[in-house]
Amino acid sequence: MAKLKEMKGIGEKSLTLLKKLGIESEEDLIEYYPYRYQLIKRSDLEKLTSDKVILDGVIETVPKIFYIHKNLNKLSFSLNTGTRILTVTLFNRAYLKQNLKIGSKITVFGKIDKNMRNVVASEVRFSTLLKETIEPIYHTTNGITIPKLAQWIDQVLEKDFYVVDYIPKEYVEKYHLMDKKESIFEIHHPTSEPQLKKALTRAKYEELFLFMMKMSELKENKMTKLGLYRTIDFQEVEKVIETLPFTLTSDQRRSVEEIYQDLTSSKRMNRLLQGDVGSGKTIVAILSMYMNYLSGYQSTLMAPTEILAIQHYETVNKFLSSFGVRTVLLTGKLKAKEKKEVLEKIANKEADIVIGTHALFTENVIYNNLGLVITDEQHRFGVNQRGNLKNKGITPDVLYMSATPIPRTYTLTLYGDMDISSIKASPSGRKETITLLKKEEDLKEVLTRMLEELKKKHQIYVIAPLIEESDKMNLENVEELEQKMNRAFGKYYKVGVLHGKMKGIEKEAVMADFQEGKIDILISTTVIEVGVNVLNATMMVIFDSYRFGLSALHQLRGRVGRSELQSYCIFISNYETERLNVLTKTTDGFKISEEDFRLRGSGDLFGIKQSGMHAFKLVDVKEDFDILKHAKIDAEAYYKSEAFQENFVLKELLKKSEDLD
Ligand code: ADP
Ligand code: MG
Questions:
Q1: Can you tell me which atom of ligand 1 is nearest the CA of 558?
Q2: Is the pLDDT of residue 389 over 60?
Q3: Measured from the CB, is residue 357 less than 6 Å from ligand 1?
Q4: 322: phi > 0 → left, psi -120 to 50 → alpha, else beta; which?
Q5: Where are the alpha helices (DSSP H) in 516-624?
Q6: How far apart (Å, rounded) are the C-alpha atoms in residues 116 and 114?
Q7: Pick from 381, 389, 318, 323: which is nearest to 352 by CA?
Q8: What DSSP string runs through 334-348?
Q9: What local confidence, expressed as pLDDT, does residue 607 receive?
Q10: Overall average pLDDT of the 359-385 stretch
Q11: Biggest alpha carbon distance in the chain?
């Protein structure tokens, strides 16, 4: 295809703007699809279902202009629709007056009043309506209008252009998919709703098929090439399992076995361990690191916060130190001398397990035979951070742990290149956390309930309102709550405070005190959100809870209800939101994520946005799940087929698209 700059009306400036939209060739231009369509059809005033109308007619009076104040003017005229005469008003569009001549035929988009006499118009077009048009609406950027973009697209469409159809013939036939070229015309110039739907289905299938082919390729590349050779005596693992203070759930056991299979196979492990908050992922990670240790390699476990890293460090030591495993903690907050010692231990293989925060990647760590990399609460990290491991040539096995209960729809796209182990059932004996929704005026009742828990010698988290804009205000909130709690309970109970502005060492001290029961009420900002595990804490009170997102609230609540004790979560909010209602109805993370999905559609679901891994042009993972399922099955089959081996066009395309890791 020809270059964009040879096209009519495209100069340097437009080229730059088009590039912003990701359009760099004629091919990009015709495959730049509308993000939605508008059905333009004359409204039937006798059968209106909403106040939004599209009407055409003839102008009957000279428009009058009223200047209401400096920044507001109003233009009105009468429009004869053939059956009625309506008054049409436009705000701040006085400049249109010269075009609105008596006798002109126009179309008006706007809102009509109840009496059907007045229309406030948002848009006027200087033509009458065809019977019915489906108008494509494109995302665009400042400097390029939709009509201009559409016109450029048409310039290409008018030529005798050629497009590559990447969908293998067998699937085109199987699903009776529309011809690609035809579908491109239909997408930009819809002829009817059913035809448009066929065209879009075809384009979406292609997009998903290619995505799934890429996933198959990634999986293949990651897993076959660089597996480590090892043998593991599972009897030794059983010995550790026997010393645990609990019996593994069947989901935990299955996950451990799946990881064992991965580690001992010749393929590289690339696995996601998915399980709701409190489901017991940590012990699976610990046993995995022990298996890795048994085969002679070093492991790392990366946590998203320092508090969590310390907690993991303690847990690992508790379970593994008696089996001779040497564990070190590496965080960004270590003093220079301590850091040097830790780094030396890692380099000399005097450490078998390294636990830490981002420092594991950002500090200049030289690993010694690193065989397993585990990241906890994976969704908190950018995708790229994993790349910086300095590990002398070997490629470690990788395990991600995530408490983010992602609806199945997303798992397929986000983690399509990974194997997945799921912990579905929480350890038995747990009681479901009782969740209550209270208003601020009910504070007295809340304090009474808190007192009941304190009397049972249980501990409480109090979460300060979330104010994103200002750390200072967060601090004020925390301090105010501290005073409040001290006034109510200070005489008999100890109140502690934890917030992001504190130094690492101060945070550690407070967490340690809370862990040991020296603090009864811990007031905290969301620094507590992930992973923290204090079994005796049985109540969480969240102030201004309407400010938090569903996932944050779910994670916060997950800090309680982690033992056999009955736990409570109290949301204080003067506003009742759908999110809060969802949370009072269920504690099941998967249900909550489905609800979140329903409430918000795609987008920022449970922090998925950060991963930036799947930006589809046309596909909406939720709406198009059915197509997605087929595309996945087909792509996986095709990837293994002989036909693919000879499909050089497609192979080339897959090679070109960037690696996601
Ligand atoms: P998460 O999956 O949220 O990381 P953790 O691994 O921190 O959860 O586990 C939560 C709590 O449950 C911990 O105190 C852990 O010791 C405990 N636990 C884990 N597995 C079991 C089990 N099979 N039976 C009883 N308690 C368990
Ligand atoms: Mg955890």
A1: 3
A2: no
A3: no
A4: alpha
A5: 550-557, 578-585, 589-600
A6: 5
A7: 323
A8: S-HHHHHHHHHHHHT
A9: 45
A10: 74
A11: 94
Residue 387: pLDDT above 80? Answer: no
321 has a pLDDT exceeding 90: yes
Cβ(248) – ligand 1 distance below 6 Å: yes
Write out pLDDT tens, residues 543-576: 999 888 888 888 899 899 988 899 999 999 988 8
Q: Do 86 and 95 touch, CB atoms closer than 8 A? A: no
Tell me the ligand closest to 253's alpha carbon. Answer: 1
**Cα 396 from Cα 399, distance rounded (Å):** 10
- Cβ of 281 closer than 6 Å to ligand 1, yes or no, is yes
Check pocket membership of 405 for ligand 1, CB cut-off 6 A: no
CA of 559 to the centre of ligand 2 (A): 10
Q: What is the mean pLDDT of residues 456-482?
A: 78
pTM over 0.85: no
Amino acid at residue number 156: V
Can you read off the two tokens belonging to residue 184? Answer: 């491109």
- The dihedral over CA atoms of 521, 526, 528, 531, expressed in degrees to the nearest 10, equals 140
Which amino acid is located at 128 in the chain? T
Residue 603's pLDDT is: 46
User: What is the pLDDT of the chain when averaged over all its residues?
Assistant: 86
Question: Dihedral of CA 154/155/160/164: which sign?
Answer: negative
Residues 648 and 261: their CA atoms lie apart, in Å, by 34
Residue 59, both tokens? 């102008």
Residues 6+ apart with CB under 8 A from 330: 339, 342, 343, 346, 354, 355, 356, 357, 359, 360, 363, 365
d(CA 110, CA 121): 4
- The pair of structure tokens assigned to 548 is 């938090």
Classified as helix, coil or strand, 41 is: strand
39 DSSP β-pair partners: 134
Q: What is the pLDDT of residues 221-273, one digit of tens each?
A: 766 656 788 899 999 999 999 999 999 999 999 999 999 999 998 888 889 89
Question: E strands along 456-567, which residues?
Answer: 459-463, 495-498, 521-524, 537-542
pLDDT given at position 659 = 45
Structure tokens at 95: 């400049």
| CA 661 to ligand 2 centroid distance, Å | 23
Mind listing the pLDDT tens digit for each residue in 83-121? Answer: 899 999 999 998 988 889 999 999 999 999 988 899 999
- Give the pLDDT band of residue 604 (cuts 50, 70, 90): very low
Q: Would you say how long the chain is, in residues?
A: 661
Distance from C-alpha of 508 to C-alpha of 512, rounded to nearest angstrom:
6
Task: Tell me how crowded residue 475 is: count the other CB atoms within 10 A of its CB.
Answer: 18
Percent of the chain predicted with pLDDT > 90: 48
Residue 205 backbone dihedrals phi, psi, to 5 degrees: -60, -45
Alpha-helical (H) ranges within 192-332 are 193-224, 234-243, 250-264, 281-294, 306-320
pLDDT for res 392: 54
**Spatial separation of the C-alpha atoms in residues 91 and 99, rounded to whole Å:** 16
Closest protein CA for atom 10 of ligand 1: 278
pLDDT, position 611: 42
Quickly list H helices, 520-656. 550-557, 578-585, 589-600, 625-640, 642-646, 648-656
CB-CB neighbours of 226 under 10 Å: 15
Give the 3-state secondary structure percentages of the chain, helix then strand then coil, rounded to 5.
45, 20, 35
Residue 170: its H or E element:
helix 169-174
| Rounded distance between C-alpha atoms, residue 151 and residue 153, angstroms | 5
